[in-house]
Design a protein that fits this description.
Order of helices and strands: HEHEHEHEHEHEHHH
Largest sheet: 6 strands, parallel
Radius of gyration: 16 Å
Mean pLDDT: 97
Oligomer: single chain
Structural class: alpha/beta
Distance between the termini: 43 Å
């Protein structure tokens, strides 16, 4: 019920897939490509909302890029992103560089698949076509195609969601991480 209320407050319809980027608004995070992918997704007639959660020096630039696309929602800085991550269907990492993304791990802990760029530590967490999809950096078309797959193939989405949660439980809980450090 809480998720339903949060979605309604943001104007998200029940049949819309929610894609979310949780990151500071800085060039390295690739928000421009996320916005372009969102536009391509919507041009193909698919239904979705696109959350950009965070603040930073690119806020005004990114808002200009998203102007006229009401499906792209900017939240600004949110001290506790729990509610927004809970209503997100697909986590997105559009960065040019990542180490081990905390955003991916947080999403995995909630059985949320991720569409991520194939850079840095992302492929160690997102196993292509298993618990999410990998795209090349700056490939908005590839990202839009990944969005369409997640939105339009419920069986594939469910498989990725389950596998994301399973991988998190097997490798990334606090208890497991402590055991790895002890070893």
């Amino acid at each position: 019920e809480e998720k339903k209320v949060v979605r309604q407050n943001l104007g998200i319809l029940p049949d819309e897939t929610v894609f979310g980027v949780f990151a500071r608004l800085a060039p390295v995070k690739g928000h421009t490509y996320f916005i372009e992918a969102a536009k391509q997704f919507l041009q193909k007639g698919a239904k979705g909302k696109f959350l950009i959660v965070g603040d930073g020096p690119l806020m005004d630039t990114l808002k200009s890029e998203a102007a006229g696309v009401p499906e792209i929602l900017f939240t600004g800085y949110v001290p506790d992103t729990t509610q927004l991550l809970n209503i997100t269907d697909v986590n997105v990492i559009s960065s040019s560089s990542e180490a081990m993304s905390l955003a991916i791990l947080e999403a995995m802990s909630l059985k949320k698949p991720t569409v991520a760029t194939n850079v840095g530590g992302n492929p160690q967490l997102v196993h292509h076509q298993n618990n999410g999809l990998l795209t090349e950096y700056a490939d908005s078309g590839g990202m839009a195609d990944a969005f369409l797959t997640m939105a339009e193939d419920p069986a594939f989405y469910q498989k990725c969601a389950e596998n994301a949660g399973d991988l998190y439980k097997r490798q990334f809980t606090a208890e497991i991480m402590v055991k790895h450090l002890e070893q």
